[in-house]
Amino acid sequence: MIRTSRPADVIRYGVFGGPAPGNRAYPLASVGTGPSPAMSKREVMSAAASLRSNGTHSLTLAHGRYVPAIVAARPRVTVRAWEMTQLLVDSPEAATCHEVFGILFREIAHRGGERLFLRLREDDPLVRIAASCGFTKYGEETLLAGPKVSFPGVSTESVREVKPVDEHDLFRLYNASTPSRARFALGMTADQWRAAREPVGWRSREYIYRQDDAAQGWAQVIRKGRSAILTLMSHPNADNSVPALVTHAMSRSWGVGNWYVLAGDHQVRLQALMGQRGHWEVARYVTMARAITSPVTVAEARRAVRIRGLNPAVDLSERYQSSTREKSYAARNS
């Protein structure tokens, strides 16, 4: 039986049927943890609390008292893009995932979702199972760990905190620095990119590197107690952006003892520079996405009104309905 999850399901998952593995999905703020072969009490409490998070939708596969699978997803920035936050699977059978994923896809579609994102460890057997469920791999990432570093002689005068007016320039930087396969999954338009940005909460800082009146680099720091995760984007032609952003971001993060740097496989320069400063590889991840056909989106397409003569064409119906869905979602969860 598949039903909406309850917090007690996590306890049943971790107790009945023997020790069960921990969460196998890795939202951005969770990289650097696990994998746990058996859930600890702290992990059980954390997972149970996350199922009640605002906007999270979760499903439980139950066979009597035994719970072999729990999945949970939440919207990223808007309801158009979702991410998997909990993937508790105690059964290696692909049929278990197919059954639960299929219902989760339909539930997200009825809520206006268009894409679902998932990050897994590269060596997890669920990568193959997720692919058989329609997920497509669009990126590979390396997690590096090490101490605080700096690059003497590199000026950080061009680095400052991100402001709302920088959004358009950051979108242009994203287009210039991100491989086409990833852009196709994350979004080709500014609205799609904005909807798919990973939420990290209030414990984060963003920095921008500007040169020649344009954004040449971007960095984000996510605090996790005495640890922090650093992610970056850099223009291919801006050689100084990476050392400047790393130096500035780490120098502004007081009290951090352990640093993690998440670098895509296309970010060769970032990986090389951090390796020279004593950082080492601790994990590898794959990022996957699945397109979801929403009944709402299909209905909108039939009523779409396009204004020609503008470049690009403007779909007024899509924008109006998307705005309506997002306002309704915000009202329900306020």
CATH superfamily caption of the largest domain:
Gcn5-related N-acetyltransferase (GNAT)
The SSE string, one letter per element, is EHHEEEHEHEEHHHEEEHEHEHEEH
Computed over alpha carbons, the radius of gyration is 21 Å
First CA to last CA: what distance? 31 Å
What form results from the Cα inertia axes?
globular
**Residue share in helix:** 25-40%
Uncertain runs are: 300-320
Q: What does the largest sheet look like?
A: 12 strands, mixed
Average pLDDT confidence is 85
Top CATH class of the largest domain: Alpha Beta
Beta content comes to 25-35%
Q: Work out the count of structural domains.
A: 3
How many individual helices? 11
Quickly give the structural class: alpha+beta
CATH architecture of the largest domain: 3-Layer(aba) Sandwich
What strand order characterises the main sheet? 1-2-3-4-5-12-6-11-10-9-8-7
CATH T-level topology of the largest domain: Aminopeptidase
The counted number of beta strands is 14
Polypeptide structure, described:
The strands form two sheets. Strands 1-2-3-4-5-12-6-11-10-9-8-7 form a twelve-stranded mixed sheet, sandwiched between helices. It has three domains: about 1-140, Gcn5-related N-acetyltransferase (GNAT) (Aminopeptidase, 3-Layer(aba) Sandwich); about 150-275, Gcn5-related N-acetyltransferase (GNAT) (Aminopeptidase, 3-Layer(aba) Sandwich); about 295-330. With about 325 residues, the protein is α+β, with helices and mostly antiparallel strands. It starts with a strand and ends with a helix. The radius of gyration is 21 Å and the shape is globular. It has helices spanning about 5-15, 40-50, 95-110, 125-130, 165-175, 180-185, 190-195, 240-250, 270-275, 295-300, 315-330; strands at about 1-5, 55-65, 65-75, 80-90, 115-120, 135-145, 160, 205-210, 215-225, 225-235, 260-265, 280-290, 305, 315. The chain contains eleven helices and 14 strands. About 35% of the residues lie in helices and about 30% in strands. β4 (about 80-90), α3 and β5 form a beta-alpha-beta unit.
